[in-house]
């Protein structure tokens, strides 16, 4: 008994040490980015990046928030698209997932196959672009950044599996009490499947927040650029910032190009870092609770 206890302790401490080192390796690049964002540009050019800043400077953040008006607007566009898009996607995906999780729905398997088919095949980029711009008129509109991602088939199946674990007797009791399907979904099913709902919501939020593909295809108006698309432009060609961009009050020679790369990265991932701890417990449950039907 004592030997087993000692072995368990050794395994536990070894796991803690290994996971701590792994976490440290994952965190170090973040510290390097943050250090580079608050380090003087000349020092970076001469000495490169380091974990700790040596010559402190906030010129990169000053340029982002005060010297380049389009980046501030892009940040608000991204926030709007993420919040509205995630809410809208969760409602539509939840309605579809709940419908397909009910065994009494006619042609349930056929409808599920149609949704699954979209994971395997699609119409191609050119037909999608023609439909989106010519027929749906989503070009140069904020809805063009939201509607194409409204329903993700993988997320729908994940949410459907969570809904399928809810006891049918509970839903039937609600129907007997006079609740309609919409009330059942939002007042009973969603709360009972909260880990799955939060997990899928996190997936949608990350998809909207990190997206640069839709604005690349659909957006020409600079007022509708999301921050990730501007980040891609900065990383692909620093000439955009060096030339002053749109609404910049900085001279090209005053632009801290290298530190701006790091600063924009910190700005774009910052909100997600602060949001994730609040949904982490649901995210962990969402990956495990659906494994066994209770």
Automatic annotation (TrEMBL):
It is found in: Cell membrane. It comes from the Bacteria. The keyword Transmembrane helix applies. CDD domains: TM_PBP2. The keyword DNA-binding does not apply. Residues 75-268 form the ABC transmembrane type-1 domain. Belongs to the binding-protein-dependent transport system permease family. This is L-arabinose transport system permease protein AraQ. It comes from Paenibacillus allorhizoplanae. The lineage of its organism: Bacteria, Bacillati, Bacillota, Bacilli, Bacillales.
